[in-house]
Design the sequence.
């Protein structure tokens, strides 16, 4: 991810006051929700892994469709965990392996001729490691005859120090399942044929065995990474311990994650920037056309953390003392305002989601001159910005000393986007 200057630093001299809703209880609920969210992400990734194994063992249209469905289902719990980024260093240091975007997909596999070639910013934009078992990388000879999770993580991911060389995680898997979306602003996702995984003469686009090896390795790595992160939030895990170590720091972590995801990351980098550039490649899940769900579940994750309640994939509810309780003890009206703003954001994101599901896809919304599409997206942008302003007020009301909320040029310095 790109790094941006913090757009907000609130300095409040009053000490934090948490009254009867003890901060330690709020932090325990927060940690329990994180643990449950990452465990659900792991479970759905394991289901995806089984579907990928079935596709590789018996390539068919039905098995490719099943793997795609498993990928889409896996995104639902994972997107709700993104609110644990920004404030938690353990999550931030890890996240780039599992959800980095946008990616130069030509690094991984074949792309359409319209994609172009190497660029000044990325010499390896069309490396196509699937078609090339040996190649030079940063002047060194690389042996990629065996595509393993260790190779993807240790040598290929962010090759040559370029962030766009995303070789692992959800979006690399997404590309291997859907292929490029060549529809521009027209309806339709990527359309990779199942025969890209077929054997012998039925194989299309060459190297089907290596493509299967890449998909298998990337999925195995995703499962391993999610298993590790779920452990960080379990009893005795380092992420849980870091949050529970100090009440003020822990509450600051919660609010930093809520504010930064709402403002700089989703409102700015994932939504407003796409509207400014009118570029369908600015979709978060551009191959699968799943961006409307990405935004929706990001928003839901923020709401979950504030209300102290998360509904697991099996329907069980994880809940407890909440930030809402803590805020209400200081200022009932402010808590009401925060909950109203969160609900408003979810309505706006719901409108985007429902429109996309009805056939008005997110890349169609991004087309220049499409006023209704821009209105839908900007409704979400403005709602996220609005709820961030109330998050700032919550920080002041609670009496935290300092909190930094990540910004975005698309919101803070729009002219810089075009420089």
Sequence:
């Amino acid at each position: 991810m790109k790094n941006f200057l913090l757009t907000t630093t609130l300095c409040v001299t009053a000490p934090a006051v948490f009254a009867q809703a003890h901060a330690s209880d709020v932090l325990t609920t927060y940690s329990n929700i994180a643990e449950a969210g990452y465990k659900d992400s792991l479970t759905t990734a394991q289901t995806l892994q089984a579907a990928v194994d079935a596709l590789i063992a018996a390539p068919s249209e039905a098995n490719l469709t099943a793997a795609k469905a498993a990928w889409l289902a896996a995104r639902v719990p994972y997107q709700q965990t993104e609110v644990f980024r920004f404030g938690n260093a353990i999550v931030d240091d890890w996240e780039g392996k599992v959800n980095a975007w946008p990616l130069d997909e030509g690094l991984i596999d074949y792309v359409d001729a319209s994609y172009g070639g190497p660029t000044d910013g990325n010499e390896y934009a069309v490396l196509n490691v699937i078609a090339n078992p040996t190649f030079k990388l940063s002047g060194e000879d690389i042996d990629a005859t065996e595509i393993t999770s260790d190779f993807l993580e240790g040598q290929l991911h962010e090759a040559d120090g370029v962030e766009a060389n995303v070789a692992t995680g959800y979006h690399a898997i997404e590309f291997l399942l859907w292929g490029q979306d060549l529809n521009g602003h027209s309806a339709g996702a990527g359309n990779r044929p199942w025969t890209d995984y077929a054997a012998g003469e039925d194989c299309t686009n060459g190297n089907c065995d290596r493509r299967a090896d890449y998909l298998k390795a990337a999925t195995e790595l995703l499962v391993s990474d999610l298993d590790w992160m779920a452990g960080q939030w379990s009893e005795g895990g380092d992420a849980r311990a870091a949050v529970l170590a100090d009440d003020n720091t822990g509450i600051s972590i919660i609010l930093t994650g809520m504010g930064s995801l709402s403002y700089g990351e989703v409102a700015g980098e994932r939504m407003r920037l796409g509207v400014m550039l009118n570029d369908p490649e600015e979709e978060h899940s551009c191959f699968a056309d799943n961006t409307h769900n990405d935004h929706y579940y990001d928003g839901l994750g923020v709401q979950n953390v504030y209300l102290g309640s998360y509904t697991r994939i099996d329907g069980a509810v994880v809940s407890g003392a909440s930030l809402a309780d803590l805020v209400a003890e200081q200022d009932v009206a402010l808590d009401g305002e925060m909950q109203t703003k969160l609900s408003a954001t979810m309505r706006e994101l719901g409108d985007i989601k429902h429109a996309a599901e009805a056939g008005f896809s997110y890349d169609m919304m991004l087309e220049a001159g499409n006023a209704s599409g821009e209105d839908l997206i900007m409704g979400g942008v403005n709602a996220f910005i609005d709820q961030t302003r109330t998050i700032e007020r919550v920080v002041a009301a609670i009496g935290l000393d300092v909190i930094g909320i990540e910004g975005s040029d698309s919101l803070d310095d729009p002219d810089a986007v075009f420089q």
Notes: Strands lie at 6-11, 134-137, 140-143, 309-311, 317-319, 402-406. The longest strand covers residues 6-11. The longest helix spans residues 23-57. Confidence is low (pLDDT under 50) at residues 1-15.
